[in-house]
Specification:
heterodimer; A: about 475 residues; B: alpha+beta; seven-stranded mixed sheet
Chain lengths: ~475, ~450
């Protein structure tokens, strides 16, 4: 990314307006995959373009283009200015009231072992070896190992001289084993794609990628022979790779200020949280501590600045169970009058920033895994999300996991398949009984939201957690 | 103009090949206006112009794929395409032969040129929408513009598809989660038709003003409007119909294969490319047949077969994408006239929309999801009250099987409003469904 020439081009084309910014994004990625021991097509991608944003007369407009020539940027700026004029006086906010920053700074993901330091052939050989270890039995009917690598660079400029540059590097490792017997099929994965992190190939060692393959295959086979998860109201012990989904859907989304302001009501939905709840609402038990933390360097959605140029800072959203603040960037804060965080983020150059989660973590408690198991008389330990559904105000949810194990009289006993549970966000978190002392850093590459639609990377670090009085059930199939 | 630009790039790519090299390339572009609305005001307004080229460099059974975002200016894009080709060429020696590589070698060029009848100024349309929403709480998005896609290979095949569409997807809110959701999509913006749809939404909104009813979990007779049924059929597209999913036993319709379960004989579902709005070619150059019958009179029909699966499993491809997902779903009509729906529902739930569907047991094709927007409690054929949201959990074999009372004679044609990465050209044409014993769980 030749940022000097873009800065010069931008200064030449920036229209006279109350505010103008350019956000240049360049993402290079590569996907390498081996399925059933056969190397799949290796795909490389280079995506680059720019979004011009103009605020004028109280209106805001944007235009995105892949044409990064001076003329291309000039045309985009004119389109953005035209949209600002059209929306002036008709917008949800008088954007001239917004104190848009002219920030300065840089952020780069620390990388110990760069992707490019290992030749493509060696990466393929690694995946082949791992893939072969997934095929342990004739009943394993499909198996795959893959890596998705990306370098996401952003240059953010404002007409008033603001300039930030960021380079986010991430890796998504994936394993799956599909076992079948007759009309029953069970799939076990490497935490879905939950072991995604920022960093280079060191992520593979950090997450135990290579060692996981035989366990995943063995657990897929276990599930074929396992009975269905029982149906009852009982304790559930959720592993971090299910906790991340629970946090994401029933804390993250309902706390987004743009949902509370109604922007998402036509698509992603609204929220059961209302503005008056901040500062006093008991969201969960005293053990519930939730932080917004884009400063944790290895986590999937870390950054130095959001896409409005606001500096990233760690903040408590829920402390000792009480709701403190929401997930809202500069625009949502101005509209709602509520405190927020630096979380205006866009999928890429061709979508405008909206309120996003970034890294949303459940802070560790004091209980060991063994202590939590010992505390359960009758319950189920569940790992790895496989099904998620929640109502549009993020209250009534139903989630399913890949793998379950009964807990009886303080001991882990038999494996069960199709473990599901359902509940209501507004009461579920108040039944948080114990919080583990071991944090696991996870995330998801696929959080969808916004009109036009955007999919974005999100991080969630969480320990294993124990909940009481949960409605648990199994599958329809025997 | 866009077509010539792509043709020029494709010719340039071919000119760079040497020896036994072969290339295929796909092109996707759009010039779209997006105006996001909330509380009958503009939230975000802007334009997006994007062009993406994907190409596969093939030598024997070795191949490497690359994708580039382009500027639209040939002088700038040619050098970048040449650099991509060189990068792919450097990768080839590291790659083993791909036993599942399959690409079209018989040249079958095609051309679909959509006419652009869109309003020149999206701002004027948005003004009309805001005027119509004045005094109401309107939220949604207007998306409009040209969508283009192309395919070319070094054998000389050229395929082109362009269309110019708008899609206004909006809700009128009464309070909290009580709203009426509507869509107005097509090729020619007709103010009278829009006005008719808006008036219909306002009329339904009045029905939401009554105190909302909450029902106990249990089994109820329900009517699923086409805008609700589409959510179920679209979920089936994820893993239901692809040959790879069938051969690896991951299909959510596994019990149709292994236990010969069937749906109601009233259910016939097709991938109807001929009557849809999506392109009829795919990324390896194969053309899609006009129709593929996925479910015929309740029994499983044909799979969608990508070229890769075709090679892997030794069957002919039917031009499916690599994801083996349908894009132009067509569910056959039934016999219940729309005018009879409330009377035949008698007492139960009229569901206009479903939300956030997912499988709660893939093998059993058990689906969970929520009611959303205008959903009503009905008694003796009369709408009584809006219903608070309810969660359902049902297998497909019940809700479109032995519990399906009937499908409506009239069908809706719904253009997919999805805009992830690019504006969708997928569509659904289908009826509503009357179902008994529909299980609500929460």
């Amino acid at each position: 990314m030749d940022d000097t020439s873009f800065q010069e081009r931008f200064q030449r084309i920036a229209p006279r307006a109350d505010f103008c910014s350019l956000r240049l994004v360049e993402e290079r990625s590569q996907h390498v995959s081996v399925r059933q021991n056969i190397v799949q097509p290796v795909t490389s991608s280079e995506d680059r373009g720019a979004m011009l944003t103009v605020v004028d007369g109280g209106g805001l407009g944007y235009a995105a283009t892949g044409d990064l020539s001076q003329e291309g940027l000039h045309q985009a700026a004119e389109h953005a200015r035209a949209w600002a004029k059209r929306s002036a006086g008709h917008s949800v906010l008088d954007f001239s009231r917004l104190q848009l920053a002219s920030p300065s700074g840089a952020y780069t993901t620390p990388v110990a072992r760069p992707w490019a330091s290992v030749p493509l052939g060696e990466k393929i050989d690694l995946l082949r070896r791992v893939c072969e270890r997934l095929k342990t039995d004739g009943r394993i009917v499909d198996w795959e190992a893959s890596l998705f690598y990306s370098e996401h660079e952003t240059l953010y400029l404002t007409a008033e001289g603001g300039r930030t540059q960021q380079r986010l590097i991430s890796l998504v490792p994936m394993l799956s084993a599909t076992a079948n017997a007759g009309s029953d099929t069970q799939i076990r994965t490497f935490g879905g794609r939950g072991f995604c992190r920022q960093g280079g190939l060191e992520v593979l060692d950090q997450t135990g990628f290579q060692a996981a393959a035989p366990r995943i295959a063995a657990e897929a086979l276990q599930l074929l022979d396992a009975p269905n998860c029982p149906q009852d109201r009982m304790d559930v012990l959720l592993a971090p790779d299910q906790m991340m989904l629970q946090i994401h859907e029933s804390i993250g989304h309902p706390l987004e200020l743009d949902r509370i302001l109604g922007d998402e009501r036509n698509y992603a939905g609204t929220s059961f949280v209302t503005p008056d709840m901040f500062g006093s609402y008991r969201y969960g038990s005293d053990l519930l501590n939730i932080t917004f933390d884009p400063t944790r360097v290895e986590e999937f959605a870390s950054y130095g600045f959001d896409d409005d140029g606001q500096p990233a800072q760690r903040a408590y959203l829920i402390r000792h169970g009480v709701l403190q603040r929401g997930l809202g960037g500069l625009t949502s804060q101005a509209r709602s009058g509520l405190p927020g965080v630096a979380n205006s983020r866009a999928q890429s150059w061709n979508r405008p920033p909206i309120d996003r989660m970034a890294n949303l973590n459940l802070e560790p408690g004091e209980s060991s895994f063994e202590e939590m198991v010992a505390a359960v008389e009758c319950g189920v330990y569940m790992q790895t999300n496989t099904s998620w559904s929640i109502d549009d105000s993020r209250n009534k949810f139903q989630f399913g996991c890949e793998w379950g194990r009964l807990i009886e009289n303080g001991r882990l006993t038999s494996v069960v398949k199709n473990p599901n549970y359902r509940g209501v966000s507004a009461t579920f978190w108040r039944n948080l009984k114990m919080v583990g002392n071991q944090l696991q850093v996870l995330g998801t590459p696929y959080c969808g939201k916004g009109e036009p639609n955007q999919v974005i990377r999100v991080g969630h670090a969480a320990p294993t957690c124990l909940f009481g009085e949960v409605e648990v059930f199994g599958g329809a199939s025997a | 103009m866009m077509q010539e630009y792509f043709a020029d790039l494709a010719d340039f790519l071919t000119s760079l090949l040497s020896g036994n090299e072969i290339s295929t390339c796909s092109f996707a572009a759009e010039d779209s206006d997006f105006v996001r609305l909330n509380r009958s005001a503009i939230r975000q307004a802007g334009s997006v112009s994007q062009r993406t080229l994907s190409c596969d460099l093939i030598e024997g059974l070795r191949h490497a794929s690359g994708e580039l975002t382009l500027s639209g200016d040939l002088a700038l894009d040619r050098p970048r395409l040449a650099a991509l080709l060189e990068q792919l060429r450097e990768q080839l020696p590291y790659l083993p032969e791909d036993p599942h590589l399959l690409y079209a070698t018989e040249v079958q060029s095609s051309e679909h040129l959509g006419d652009n009848h869109l309003p020149e100024d999206s701002g004027a349309v948005v003004s009309a929408v805001l005027d119509a929403g004045h005094g109401h709480d309107l939220v949604g998005v207007y998306a409009a513009g040209g969508i283009h896609s192309g395919f070319a290979n070094s054998f000389g095949q050229r395929n082109w598809f362009s269309t110019y569409t708008y899609n206004l997807d909006w809700s009128l809110y009464l309070q909290a989660d009580k709203a009426v959701k509507s869509r107005y999509a097509g090729f020619v913006w007709d103010p009278a038709e829009f006005s008719h749809k808006m008036d219909a939404a306002k009329a339904q909104l009045a029905g939401l003003a009554k105190p909302a009813r909450t029902i106990e979990p249990g089994e109820y007779r329900v009517y699923l409007a086409p805008t609700a049924l589409v959510e179920i059929v679209e979920l089936l597209s994820w893993g239901g119909f692809g040959l790879k999913d069938h051969r690896t036993k991951q299909t959510t319709l596994l019990k149709m294969l292994e236990e010969s379960l069937t749906l109601s004989p009233q259910v016939t579902l097709q991938e109807n490319t001929a009557d849809g709005v999506a392109a009829n070619f795919q990324a390896a150059g194969f053309l899609k047949p006009d129709r593929v019958t996925l479910i015929e009179a309740g029994a499983f029909g044909e799979c969608l077969v990508s070229p890769r699966s075709a090679k892997e499993y030794g069957v002919p491809t039917n031009g499916a994408s690599s994801w083996e997902m349908p894009a132009s779903l067509d569910l056959a009509a039934g016999t219940i006239p729309d005018s009879e729906v409330l009377r035949q529902l008698d007492t139960g739930v009229y569901i206009n929309n479903l939300w956030y569907l997912n499988y709660s047991d893939r093998t059993a094709c058990r689906i969970t999801g929520m009611t959303r927007f205008a959903t009503f409690w009905v008694e003796h054929g009369e709408i009584q009250a809006p219903l608070n949201v309810m969660r359902f959990d049902e297998t497909l074999y019940r809700l479109l099987g032995d519990k399906l009372l009937g499908l409506t004679a009239e069908r809706d044609f719904l253009l997919d409003p999805s805009t992830y990465h690019a504006r969708s050209t997928s569509s659904f044409r289908g009826p509503g469904a009357l179902v008994e014993g529909f299980l609500f769980t929460l």
